Amino acid sequence: MYDDLTPIERSPVQHDRLPGGPRHGKKRSRGRSGGGGGSKKVSRQRYWLRRAIVLSALALVVAVAGVAGYAWYLNSRFHHTNVSGLQGSIHGTENILLVGSTDRCALKVQNPAYGLCQNGVNGVNSDITMVVHLDFNNGTMALLSIPRDTFIPNARIEGANKIDAALYQGPSQLVAAIQEDFGIPIDHYIELNFDTFADVVNALGGIHMYFPVPVFDLESGLNIRHFGCYYLDGFHALQVVRARHLQIYHPGDNLNDPQSWAQEPESDLARIRRTHEFLRVLAKELSGNGLSNPSTDVSLAQSVSHDLTIDQNLTLSTMVSLAENFNSVPIGSVPQLTYPVIVDLSGSLEYEGGNYGDVVFPIQPGGMATMDQIFGSTPTTSTWDYAPLPAPSSFTTSVENATGVANQAATVAHGLGAHGFRIGATGDRTPTGPISETIVWYGGPPAPKNGTWTSPQMADAQAILRQIQGPAIMGYDPSKVDPGATVTVQTGTDVSIAPVRHVTTTTTQPTTSTSTTVAGGGATPTTVPDVPGVSTDNNFSAPSAIAQPLKPWDPRGCNSQNNGPATT
Fold it and tell me: Considering only the top CATH level, what class is 12-200+268-338?
C-alpha cells in the first residue's frame, strides 16, 4: 500500500521518479467533523509573471491570471461559492484565507489512499488554515498559520470546537469564526482540495526535496527509507504536507519496520513547520520554471481552476491586480508564522459535557504579539481596523470565575483595575470543564463603517485581551455578556493579568523625574503565568514557537544538482 521511495542518485537530467501512485486519510472523530484568446494575449500578460509570486498557495491562483487569453474559459471552470461576512480592503491591506479541505466526497475520482467517501470517510475539515496578509502600501506579504486543533469559542454556529471543525458548516462559518474570535478581517476565501494540490505540483513537473533521515507516516502514506534528494510528484508531495503522525528512524532501528520507529511528539505543529518549508521550495520551483513558458502556465492554470473553490468576489481581474502588486516580493523575505498555542496535556478536553480529544489553546501575550507582527497592528491599536484601542475607563468590564479557583474573579478584576479598566460586577459561572481557556466575551454586532464592518465592542474586548496572560481568546456572544457590562471576562485555567510597569523618565533637569504608568510588560510570549498565589496545574505544554527552525529529520529543499540539501 505504501511506496518505498528511491532517492535521486544520478544527474538532475536523469533523476529517478518515485514509484507511481494515483493522482488523486484519516476518519475524524465525532462532531468534527481551451479556446478563445490565443498566444498573443498570453504573451502580453506574462511580463509580470517572470518572477516568483512567493507564497505557493497564493501563487497557484495568481498564476491563473497570467493566462489572460483563457479568461472566459477559466472563469467557467472556477467553483465560486457565496461566502458571507467578507470585508473590504482596510487602509490598503487585504487578508486572504487559504484553506486545505479534507472533503473526500468532493473529489471527482475517489482514492483509497485518502479514504473513501462511500466507506464513511466523509468529514469536512480544514486540514490547513492560513491567512495571507497583503499590504499594498509597501508591497509586502506575510502568512499566519492557525493550528487545526486550536479550540475557539465560535468554531461552530452552536458554539465552541476546534477551528478545523468550522468548515463542516461551510466557508462562511470558518470566516466568521476567525473574524469573531481572532479579530482578523477576511477579504477573500480560497479553498484547495487534495486533487488541486496534486495537480498543481504535477503541472510544474514535480519538485525535489531532500530527506536527511528515513521517515514514515502510516496515515499520509509517506515512506522514506533512505536519506537523499527525492523527486516528488503531486501524489507524493501531498504525503509530505499531510504528515502529522511522523515516525523517525534512528541508528540501530530496524529499517524494515518503520512502525517501530520513534514518534514525533508535535503532530500538527510539526506538520505546519514542514508545510512552510514546502511552500518555500514550491515557490522556488514557480520562480525557476513554472512561470517561465506559456505551456506550463496554461497547464498550471487549467490544473488549478477545476478543483479550486473561491469566493464570489474573487475575479480574474482581482488576481491580475494581486500579481502586478506582489510579483517582485523576494521569496526569503516573507514571514511565515504560526499562532502560538499551548497543548492541553490532559489527554482529551472535556467541555460542557462533550469530549473533544486533543486540543491546543491560544496563548497570550504571544498570540496578540504575533498578530501585530503579521498584520502591522500595535499593542495600542486594533488588529481589525488599526484604530486606537479605547481608553480602559471608557467601558465596563465584568469578571466571572469559571474555574472554581478561590478568589480568581476578584484577583483578575483587581489586576485589570490596576490598568485603569472600569470593573462592574464580579461573580461565578459554571465551569466548562476541568481545564479551560479564558474567554473575553463581547456582544456588540459588527456594523458597516467607511466601507467595511467594525465592532466597537470587539475593540473593547481586544483592549482587555492584550492585558491577559495565559491561555485566552476573544469570543462573540451577547448572551455571555453580563447585564450592565460591555465585556465579560470568563476566567480559565492559569490566567493572570500583565503587571503594570512604572517607567521613570528624567527631564533636562537632573534632579527632576516623573513616573509614568504603562500597561503591560512583565511577561514574555513564552511564559504561562498563574494567578498570584496559585500554582500551575502542570497540564499544559510550553507555548509553541511562532517560527520554528527545521528539525534534523525534516525534509527541505535540494541543491541545484539535486544530490544534497540546499544551502541557506
Answer: alpha beta
